[in-house]
């Protein structure tokens, strides 16, 4: 190793190379020796270097230095390049010595760094050897892992194969082996919920054996086991048959509650019946038929007794004498000819009253006949109808749910076939009950004249049908439709009887008797009609039906025809209008009181329009009676004015004189006539205001004509002496003051 103090006698021209050489020397110097450094020999000077150059080289150097910016600046300033070169050479030498001193001062740290780097190199070499060995070992381990994976995959395949074989063997063993405990339980154990598990196990074995027996190459064990399982099936079927028939037999007692037996007994053992349905259908059919026969008799007997009990509670709300057109004073034929006794609460014949509550706020309970008889209660037909049919749908819901669970196996429960089977069983059971219900409906309505009761039954039937849909019980459609087919024709027949009674009221001999009692006040038929129509409208909602709409139209047409026939007997048009207004007003008022104001129903709008038309005509008739001269004069004068026909001022004088003399008495007479003619004070007030308001309009028009043809000419000096002395008409304000006296009479 070279001594760090041995610096070459002749350094390279580049100071950086000298520094690098010095650093390398220091790195190689031992740490224990610290000799005093010697300054290295300085490189050749610029003059020495230039002396060694040839002319060509000097020329090239000259051109190269000429391009240098520093040299160009020195030349431009006129400085001596040699002096500047020596100055630069001295500065470089000083800087080089300074840098060398700094390097000598840091040589210890540089040596430490060198030793650390060498130590790191040794460590890295050792690590490289370790990693190389570890890499080799990893390669061996990877090979071992791959071999283990291959072995594991092979073992997994073997395990899966053995598990598949074990599973198949388990199925075979479970399907073919008949444990003695199972035989003992099926043949001799008590039938309880645990017995259901035994027969289900037997069913699984039978299904497996029968499936294996139908294969092309059945196992020999199948031929040995199948006969034994079939014998066990026969034993279990016989025991289950006896058990279920014995439980069903308990239903035959009328005092038994069938729902309790179904929930507490039969439902607990429905698995036994499902076993028979799947494994021994003949026995299952026998049990099903026995159940249908038993429950059919049970329900038929109970509902028949219930129907007879309800019939004794019927309160007849209306009979043949309770028609719209029949007078309450009509005499019955017979020996004594007495009037019809009032045995009924007549307020519910044409008006619903609280009968509507049965469809708006129905009671959740059904009627118990013997309790109602003890209380001596009598109820209308719709209450009896609802009670029977409510009991019917409640029992229908319970029975259909039980049939769907007991006679339909879980495998077919959600299939269409299972639903059809449940419907068929239910229809066989409830056929006599439905017939009894139709018979009760026929008995209640066939000879009834209570149209409101029949329509209430129709609404109840609609609600019960919706309730069945809400409960998801898809039965009784035929019964509900058959009930509607009974009720709608009867309702139409009763409405036809009402219309015929109004048609016959003022025909033949009854017409003369009726005309002798004519009165301008509302007719009793009108009141009945209004109450009846309000009731029909209340029931014809949610949803409305065309049958009721058509019935309302027929009743309205017949009432209007009847009122026109009655009005023919009055002597003048004013009395006729008073009669019609009073009747139309009564209809509108009753409809409004029952929640059907104008704009809410076609009937209300129609009669309101009829009333308005008659009032307008009545107003004109009243004005014609007391102020006809004024109306005719105004109309004729306005026509002449429009046609540019001259109007003589003198023609106004008679009209002015008559109006000034009679208008107060005429107003009093009109007021008295309205008070006397209209029983409804509110209606009378409206009519009086209409008459007086129309009078003000006519009189205002008259004043305009008077001012145009008389007053202006008089002021202009064109009038005669006679015109100047005639009376002037009463002012419009004076007439209005007089009119206000009659506004508070109603």
Automatic annotation (TrEMBL):
Main location: Golgi
Keyword Hydrolase: no
Domain Vps52 C-terminal, first and last residues per copy: 298-608
Gene Ontology MF terms: syntaxin binding
Limits of the Vps52 coiled-coil domain: 103-276
Gene Ontology, cellular component aspect: cytosol; GARP complex
Keywords tagged on the record: Golgi apparatus, Protein transport, Transport
Annotated localization: Golgi apparatus, trans-Golgi network
Keyword tRNA-binding assigned: no
A Pfam family matched in the record: Vps52_CC
InterPro entries named in the record: Vps52, Vps52_C, Vps52_CC
Similarity comment text for this entry: Belongs to the VPS52 family.
Protein name: Vacuolar protein sorting-associated protein 52
Source species of the chain: Dimargaris verticillata
Encoding gene (name): VPS52
């Amino acid at each position: 190793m070279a001594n760090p103090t041995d610096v070459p006698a002749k350094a390279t021209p580049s100071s950086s190379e000298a520094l690098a050489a010095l650093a390398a020397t220091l790195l190689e110097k031992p740490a224990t020796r610290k000799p005093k450094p010697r300054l290295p020999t300085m490189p050749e000077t610029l003059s020495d270097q230039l002396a060694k150059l040839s002319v060509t080289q000097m020329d090239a150097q000259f051109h190269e230095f000429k391009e240098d910016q520093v040299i160009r600046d020195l030349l431009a300033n006129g400085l001596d390049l040699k002096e500047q070169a020596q100055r630069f050479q001295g500065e470089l030498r000083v800087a080089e010595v300074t840098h060398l001193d700094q390097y000598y001062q840091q040589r210890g740290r540089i040596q430490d760094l060198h030793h650390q780097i060498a130590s790191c190199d040794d460590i890295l070499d050792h690590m490289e050897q370790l990693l190389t060995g570890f890499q080799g070992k990893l390669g061996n381990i990877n090979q071992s892992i791959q071999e283990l994976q291959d072995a594991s995959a092979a073992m997994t395949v073997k395990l899966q194969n053995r598990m598949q074989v074990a599973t198949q063997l388990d199925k075979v063993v479970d399907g073919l082996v008949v444990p003695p405990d199972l035989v003992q339980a099926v043949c001799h154990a008590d039938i309880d919920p645990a017995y259901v598990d035994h027969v289900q196990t037997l069913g699984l074995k039978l299904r497996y054996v029968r499936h294996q027996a139908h294969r092309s190459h059945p196992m020999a064990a199948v031929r040995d086991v199948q006969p034994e399982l079939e014998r066990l099936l026969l034993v279990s079927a016989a025991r289950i048959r006896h058990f279920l028939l014995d439980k069903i037999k308990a239903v035959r007692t009328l005092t038994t509650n069938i729902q309790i037996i179904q929930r507490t007994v039969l439902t607990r053992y429905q698995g036994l019946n499902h076993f028979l349905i799947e494994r021994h259908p003949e026995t299952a059919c026998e049990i099903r038929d026995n159940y249908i026969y038993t429950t059919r008799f049970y329900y038929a007997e109970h509902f028949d007794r219930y129907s007879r009990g309800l019939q004794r509670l019927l309160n007849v709300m209306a009979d043949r004498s309770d028609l719209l057109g029949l007078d309450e004073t009509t005499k019955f034929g017979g020996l004594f000819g007495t009037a019809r006794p009032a045995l009924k609460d007549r307020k519910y014949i044409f008006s619903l009253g609280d009968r509507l509550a049965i469809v708006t706020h129905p009671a959740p309970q059904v009627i118990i006949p013997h309790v109602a008889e003890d209380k001596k209660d009598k109820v209308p037909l719709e209450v009896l109808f609802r009670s029977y049919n409510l009991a019917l749908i409640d029992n229908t819901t319970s029975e259909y749910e039980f049939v769907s669970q007991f006679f339909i196996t879980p495998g077919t429960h959600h299939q269409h076939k299972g639903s059809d089977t449940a419907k068929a069983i239910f229809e066989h059971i409830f056929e006599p009950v439905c017939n009894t219900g139709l018979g009760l409906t026929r008995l209640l309505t066939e000879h009834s004249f209570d149209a409101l009761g029949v329509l209430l039954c129709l609404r109840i039937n609609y609600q019960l049908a919706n309730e069945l849909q809400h409960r998801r019980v898809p039965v009784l459609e035929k019964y509900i439709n058959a009930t509607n087919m009974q009720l709608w024709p009867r309702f139409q027949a009763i409405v036809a009887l009402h219309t015929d009674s109004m048609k016959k009221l003022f025909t033949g001999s009854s017409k003369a008797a009726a005309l002798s009692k004519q009165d301008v006040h509302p007719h009793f038929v009108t009141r009945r009609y209004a109450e009846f129509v309000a009731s029909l409208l209340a029931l014809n909602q949610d949803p409305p039906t065309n049958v009721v709409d058509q019935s309302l139209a027929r009743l309205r047409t017949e009432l209007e025809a009847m009122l026109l026939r009655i009005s023919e007997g009055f002597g003048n048009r004013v009395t006729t209008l008073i009669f019609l207004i009073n009747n139309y007003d009564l209809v509108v008022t009753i409809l409004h009181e029952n929640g059907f104001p104008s704009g809410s129903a076609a009937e209300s709008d129609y009669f309101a329009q009829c009333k308005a038309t008659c009032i307008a005509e009545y107003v004109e008739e009243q004005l014609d009676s007391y102020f006809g001269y004024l109306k005719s004069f105004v109309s004729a004068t306005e026509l002449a004015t429009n046609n540019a026909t001259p109007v003589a001022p003198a023609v106004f004088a008679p009209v002015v004189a008559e109006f000034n003399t009679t208008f107060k008495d005429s107003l009093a007479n009109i007021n008295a006539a309205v008070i006397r003619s209209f029983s409804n004070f509110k209606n009378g007030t409206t009519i009086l205001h209409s008459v007086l308001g129309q009078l003000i309009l006519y009189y205002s028009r008259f004043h305009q004509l008077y001012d145009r043809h008389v007053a202006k000419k008089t002021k202009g000096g064109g009038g005669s002496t006679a015109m100047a002395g005639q009376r002037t008409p009463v002012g419009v304000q004076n007439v209005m003051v007089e009119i206000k006296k009659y506004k508070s009479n109603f």
